[in-house]
Structure formats: C-alpha cells, structure tokens
Amino acid sequence: MIDVFLLLGSNLGNRIEYLEKAVELIARDVAPISRSSALYETQSWGKTDEPDYLNQVVELQTGLSAQALLQKVLAIEIAIGRTRHIKWGSRVIDIDILFYGDAVINEPGLVVPHPELHNRRFTLEPLVELVPHLIHPLLKKNILQLKSELKDDLIVNKL
Hints:
Pathway: Cofactor biosynthesis; tetrahydrofolate biosynthesis; 2-amino-4-hydroxy-6-hydroxymethyl-7,8-dihydropteridine diphosphate from 7,8-dihydroneopterin triphosphate: step 4/4
Low-confidence stretches: none
CATH class: Alpha Beta
EC number: 2.7.6.3
Structural class: alpha+beta
InterPro entries: Hppk (IPR000550), Hppk_sf (IPR035907)
Order of helices and strands: EHEEEHEEEHHE
Helix content: 25-40%
Family: Belongs to the HPPK family.
GO molecular function: 2-amino-4-hydroxy-6-hydroxymethyldihydropteridine diphosphokinase activity; ATP binding; kinase activity
C-alpha cells in the first residue's frame, strides 16, 4: 500500500459541503481516509481576484497505481460538478495529488510530487499539521523546512 496525500480545495458555493462530499467519495471510491487536516481558509493563489478557498489535506493508503488514482480523483471532481474553464479559476472542487509515497512521477497529465506544493502556503500549512517531518523526495527537505523557507505571503487561516 502506498501513502498518498491529497489536497482538497473549493471556493464556490457551499465550500464545506463540497469538501465533505469529496472526502465521502474518496473514502468510497478510492480508499478510506486515515487522517485529515483541519480546514484552512485561503486567499486565492495564482488568480488573486477570485473568492477565498477552503483547503484540506487528507491522507490515505492505496494499492492503485498513480495513474489509476488520478483517474478516480478526476472522476470525483466531475461527479461533484467541477468544470475546467480558466487556469487557476474558481471551482466547486479541486483535488490534487501532492505525494504518492516517495515516488517521483513526470508523465503527461501527472506530476508528483505536486510541482508547486513547496511554493504554496495553503498546501504546506495543512501538510505541516499532518506530517511535518515528511521528506520531499526531490527537494530532500522536510515539510517544516519547506514552510520555513516559504516566500508566499497569502493569508491562510486555520478554521
């Protein structure tokens, strides 16, 4: 079984309801969630004129391949109502694969570890809550170190 960390995010509609639905579908269609962070309210990143996000990191163990996991996650996004129009645009749900064990994957449509996670406070804050000493397999630094070196100054508040 592979330890997987997913980042969930929503900035449209009933954000809590969308995150709860994502957790429910992940547990049903992918694998039981072993741990989850608190919810964090976050200023929009990349396209800063969008509504604030709610974000959460969940951990699970799966026997699925990384590509199979990606397909399940994309299907869950669609089931919840995700549509893709604009890069970094608002969305009812976004599910990103942050880590897939200690694998380094660079395939069309799938890059793991997530290529921006070390630059994003909204990703590192909930990761620090769960796994502060997890080593990033490419950067060879733990999550706490990455957070301490962060230049992202967007506001992230734990709820």
